[in-house]
Amino acid sequence: MTLSIRRDILSWAIAVIQPATISDIYNFLTSVLKDKDAMPSRDAIVIEVLALIELNDIARVSQKPTRYSITAKGNNRLNKRLRHLRDRMRLFLLKNAYRGSLKQPSAIFDEETNDVSSFIRKAVEIKDAQRPNSSLVADQTAVWSLVSEQFSIGPNEVADGVPLIPTFYSFDANYFDGELRSVVDLSEAIGISIRLITSIVKNKQKHYRTFPVIKKSGGERVIDAPRTFLKVIQRWLSDFLLNKLPVHDFCFSYKKGQSIRHNAQIHVGKKFVLNIDVKDFFGSITKKMIFTALIENGFENKLAKIVSELCTYNDRLPQGAPSSPILSNSILYKMDCFLTEQGVLFDYNYSRYADDITISSNDRLTMELGRETIFRCLNESGFDINDGKTRVAATNSRQIVTGLVVNKKVQPTRAYRRKVRAMFDHAKKNPGSFTDRYNVLTGCFYYLASFGCISHSKINEYENTLSLLKELAKR
């Protein structure tokens, strides 16, 4: 009995797990095939793969090992249901791979779709003269042979002068002539359909959920959180394209290995410290500002346009999108450079942590000049200043930078240290009431210990309290 496979189903399988070897494709189809006896041989798959290459529906993207990816033409040949299913499976795999919790296909289906199994039985069939109704289903025994490699996401160090190009994508750089240029290139690099990207851009309101959160200082902050499809795409853009955008050395926000402590450290021991807060930081960054920044950093016009569309909502940078932090840092890169140069010229230290700008100096007149310069730069760049959070602190008062005291050394505020001490005292006296707060107390302990704010005797006391809470939590 000779078994063959429908070419559109083979293209669909490649599109889900691309770039894929013949073994990857075979294992994937075997994992989701309801009737194992209906599975065509590897040789039959090779014959059909070669035929798809001739049709330019798929392309050979590497030689050692030989791997294949679907082309834009091949993607367009998929019917609506197969294309929708491919996009759905691939994006949920990307999401789970990013979290480090890859799931079986059935788990992905169960998470978001109730009728996927029945849908696949209708949409996907294996061709066989004696088994015309054999079908594919989501199977618990699914094996994704190279999925951890294929969907490994993360920025990589790149030498200066190297084009902005993803380091892990469905096609190699030569396929795009060394750089991405358009939405077509972007869709192929991510491995999703152009229709999905354009649909998201045209119907952004369907891909965001808006809700308020309470600020510590009172009032509400509006969060525009992207839903799964768009969130995964924004994360991919952040890790493979936007991470190459310039960010100033004295900008400490949203950078790996940097924290509020690094931001505060450079202002220790100064006579005067000035804090300036930018009002509605993300909301002040427009789509036009993002587009301009991308063009200035070498993005092709069409690519800059689609990326700025995918990363904005209501023509503004949404607070809640994974792409917003890195874009905000890049938008202010020129201003950071200018203000740092002014600091060297007029002898003050400059740093920025998101919307918190800080300068420090031993001369009050210098501080006034610095403040005027910053106000002017922010206004010219389209930002407003939160006057209620702008203040100058001298050495005879508490100098705070991003929540840390910097008068003589960097350390948490006295109020915070007292709060933690009180929590541990209560936990020691009533451990049964604090078992559900073990993680909170552990975090507070290590945070204070990193600043050397806990005496040796207290360290032993706090460690004993944490050990007791941990034991009680196990019971």
From TrEMBL:
It comes from the Bacteria. It catalyses: DNA(n) + a 2'-deoxyribonucleoside 5'-triphosphate = DNA(n+1) + diphosphate. PROSITE patterns: RT_POL. It holds the Pfam family RVT_1. Belongs to the bacterial reverse transcriptase family. InterPro entries: DNA/RNA_pol_sf, GrpII_Intron_Splice-Mob/Def, Rev_trsase/Diguanyl_cyclase, Reverse_transcriptase_msDNA, RT_dom. This is RNA-directed DNA polymerase. PANTHER family: NUCLEAR INTRON MATURASE 1, MITOCHONDRIAL-RELATED (PTHR34047), RNA-DIRECTED DNA POLYMERASE (PTHR34047:SF7). It is an enzyme of class 2 (transferase). Keywords: Antiviral defense, Magnesium, Metal-binding, Nucleotidyltransferase, RNA-directed DNA polymerase, Transferase. It comes from Rahnella variigena. The keyword Zinc does not apply. Its EC number is 2.7.7.49. Residues 194-406 form the Reverse transcriptase domain.
